[in-house]
Amino acid sequence: MPPKAEHWRYGKLTYSPNPNLQTVQSWHTVQSMSRRERHRARKRHEIKMAAVRLALASGPGEVTVDAISTAADIAPRTFFNYFSSKEEALTPDSNWTAQELLDLFNAQPADESPLRSLRGVARQIADSYAPSPEELELWQRHPELLTLAQPEDEEEIFPALIDAVTARLGDDSPHPIYPSLLVTSVFGAMHCAARASWSVPGKTVEDLVDEALDLLERGL
Fold first, then answer.
1. Are 194 and 126 within 8 A, CB to CB?
2. What does the alpha-carbon distance between residue 136 and residue 99 come to, in Å, rounded to a whole number?
3. What is the pLDDT of residue 74?
4. What is the pLDDT of residue 8?
5. What is the pLDDT, as a whole number, of residue 150?
6. DSSP string, 42-89
7. What is the set of domains in the chain, with CATH numbers?
8. Residue ranges of the chain with per-residue pLDDT less than 50
9. What SS3 state is found at 47?
10. Which residue, of 19, 44, 91, 137, is most buried by count of CB atoms within 10 Å of its CB?
11. What is the DSSP letter of 147?
């Protein structure tokens, strides 16, 4: 279990000692997650933070799986039940699958524009891109770690949403490349806003995502 005073985030799940503050960024609830899923989320977070703190103390190159395992009080073989490598433990988590994002898009009002629906999706998932203070410090010191992150279902996410936008538009698409341009632009704006939130004081990820999408919606 994490320290009782600690608040932590794992992907879509935010953990707090106060159960009323636990939230999930999709249609799920914490209560709908099995005890096993919650335990796995907590344990993965503990291992990840052990890795991050070691990397802050001695540099990512000096961190080993054995050292992470010792710090997290687990066996090295257990580490590989949660991460494929030490690099995965030191990079941003992949928070959303193609199916989850597609379901969020399809849950938006069917009569609104695809841009408004994608904006609704972006608002729902923005907070899951906010790192912990330790992660932020690590990535600011070692930005090369960010280049190692590979979003889960990367090859499936954009095609799935592009197909959904194409279906929503039907014959009303202004140009054959419009659905692809729209999806990649919205997610590009969201990622820029998430990165900007690390260095813009007084602004949350949600604030900056809204501002970025305002600019996009006005046509930059």
1. yes
2. 28
3. 97
4. 43
5. 61
6. HHHHHHHHHHHHHHHHH-GGG--HHHHHHHHTS-HHHHTTT-SSHHHH
7. 8-90 (1.10.357.10), 98-217 (1.10.357.10)
8. 1-32
9. helix
10. 91
11. G
